[in-house]
Amino acid sequence: MGKPPGFCIGLFLLWSLAIQTYGQGSGNAREVNVGVYLSPPFVMQEGEKLSGMSVELWENISQKQNLTSQYRVYKDIKSLVDGVHRGEIDVAVTNLTITEARARKIDFTQPWFDAGLRVMVGKKRRTSISDILHGLKKTGMLASYLWILGVIVLATLAFTLFYRKFDREFPRRWRDGLAESFYSVMSIATSGNAQRKNLFGWVGKIWAGIWLVCGVAVVSFITASITSVMTSLALTTQINGLRDLPGKTVGVLAGSVAEEYIRENGISTHGFDSTEQAVAALHAGEVDAIVGDSPVLAYFAFNNPELGLRLVGKLFNPDKYAFAVPKGSPLARPLSIEIIAAHEQGLIMDLREDYFGTVK
């Protein structure tokens, strides 16, 4: 028994609609809303023109799928993912990492780029006087210095009163006398040389010897404590990788995988909308380091050599980039097939070499 004519007509209409919608055959191109997040070298913008590795790959795929793109720029990764989830856009194009949390909200295409996270730091900062004072205060040594200063003040006053009474040649004006006594105290404490004559014979020499021992101890203590603090500052401020980040404030892109990973490891973060903002905060001392996608940070550092940025440590938390579409989108499968074809035909490798150089 044959199918009803209405059923056949319905199948034909659905088939015609599919051709028109996805650009198969000779139908008109389908217009899709494409969300992007500016992340050089994957997505860049000059005026109204978008470029970058992700954009080039998308333009190649969309041409083969007979799609025309209407682009919309999002300020951060989180907004882009939310835009896909709400159906504001048909596809998200950038260096978007595949994660479980995101996969519960949106669908991903076949991965097209292997990446991971890296730590970026700025120029090595010289230790300043304020850093040393802060270190001395933190270790409690600054309080000891204040006690030593108090002893010196009391000794200066005692010397002044003593010499005013027993030494007729001692200056009579108080300011001159205090200055003379202070110089004598510091001279005995640092070198053991008494600047004034000995008024008490062997007793005076013993007293000067005691001052000499005390002075040597004080000088040694001050030298050792400052050296210790400077060494500690050099070790604690130096960042050579992920393991040096606990206790530091790390700059990340808001809503990124880097932000999630660093927070999960109990490290303080400061979110930014762009790498430029994060680097500005790094140079201003608002953050101690930046954690982000390795290729993005490497590209930024390479193209801004005057900033003195360095990538330190090894790659960690390896991940994969893909395009994203709303849940159940019919675009997921054809886009994945085109990405697989781009891998097999060497297109993605060619793009990677164009933006990052020859892959070794």
UniProtKB/TrEMBL annotation:
Keyword terms: Glycoprotein, Ion channel, Ion transport, Membrane, Receptor, Transmembrane, Transmembrane helix, Transport
Domain of life: Bacteria
Pfam families: SBP_bac_3
Transmembrane segments: 145-163, 206-230
Domain (Solute-binding protein family 3/N-terminal): residue spans on this chain: 31-359
UniProt key word Transport: yes
Domain Ionotropic glutamate receptor C-terminal: 31-358
UniProt entry tagged with the keyword Ion transport: yes
SUPFAM superfamilies: Periplasmic binding protein-like II (SSF53850), Voltage-gated potassium channels (SSF81324)
Descriptive protein name: Transporter substrate-binding domain-containing protein
Organism: Microbulbifer elongatus
